[in-house]
Amino acid sequence: MHPNRTDAAEIESLYRQHGAALLLFAAAITGEHSRAQDALHQVFLKLIEDGNLRHALDKKAYLFACVRNPVLNVAKVLNRHTPPDPDSARLTSTWFTPPDRDYAA
Questions:
Q1: I want to staple 36 with a disulfide (CB 3.0 to 4.6 A). Which of 17, 27, 41, 43 is the partner?
Q2: What is the total count of domains within the chain?
Q3: Percentage of the chain lying above the pLDDT 90 cut
Q4: Are 10 and 55 within 8 A, CB to CB?
Q5: Above 50 in pLDDT, residue 3?
Q6: CA 36 to chain CA centroid, nearest Å
């Protein structure tokens, strides 16, 4: 085993210890339990494959960041494909309507 690899027993222990909190955290961000589960499982699968957790000073904080980042990235992509709300577009256009008169002049 590579000296910097985290062993499977430690990864399993981290999953048992923090998995429920990580799932709730991801669900709070995604609003969807299934997407949260997918994100959590992807993080732990990557840990099993790469096993590189030894460099993390605070493993719990590291795990939360590992879950948060891809969840937020997916949310950004999904939001790009969501059509704008017509009511908000109408409000935005009234906020940015130029004045009738040029006050700076």
A1: 27
A2: 1
A3: 30
A4: no
A5: no
A6: 9
Q: Is the pTM of this model over 0.70?
A: no
Please report whether residue 100 resides in a domain. no
Asked if residue 83 is part of any domain, the answer here is yes
Tell how far CA 15 is from the center of its chain.
Answer: 18
Residue 30 near residue 36 (C-beta atoms within 8 A): yes
Domain extent at residue 83: 8-95
d(CA 89, CA 69): 29
Please give the single-letter amino acid code of residue 101: R
pLDDT band at 54; cut points 50, 70, 90: confident
Angle between the N-to-C axes of helices 8-30 and 59-80, in degrees from 0 to 180, rounded to the nearest 10: 40
Residue 104 covered by a domain? no
How many Å apart are CA 91 and CA 63, to the nearest integer?
A: 40
| Banded pLDDT at 22 (limits 50, 70, 90) | very high
State residue 21's pLDDT score. Answer: 95
Q: Classify residue 103: in a domain, yes or no.
A: no
How far apart, in whole angstroms, are the C-alpha atoms of residue 81 and residue 51? 34
